[in-house]
# Entry
Amino acid sequence: MKRNSKFMMDILPGIVIALFSIGYLSLIPKIQTFTGMGSTPLTNHFVPALWGGFLLVLALWLIVRGLRKRAAFLKEGGKIEKFDLKAAFDEKREVILSFVVLTIYVALMDAVGFVPMTILYLFAQILILTPTSKWKKTWLPALICGIICAVLFYFIFRMKLNVLLPQGILKSFGL
# Structure
């Protein structure tokens, strides 16, 4: 008799992503509508609604896939065990930490600024995706890559494309 199953690895992320997408979709009406040069059926609500809708559909697909896996598992005579959250975290460590780091990056961007947060984000993301045994050799190149990419992105978006980016603490230095 089978005792271990992987269906919860679809159901739990599906539920989390579905809740996130519902929250995202609920914020779309708060976006101030920009009419631009005239009337158009595609306002600035269209793309966020499109992305949020796709995200919700994909989340529901994950949940349905997990429920189908569960039904097939039970049909084969499998026995459902208690879900081990620690084992699931260890298995998906990089994905979970990437979402945590991305959330921190977005949350602190206005206060700290685009350049410092992008440096920290890229540095952390490179280390997350690198095996821990290689961190001693990787931390300096990761930091250099973060600095170069952040400054390059700032130059391209701010100086060439005139995109306003959060200045944060750099405003006090006149940058």
Remarks:
- The chain has a mean pLDDT of 85.
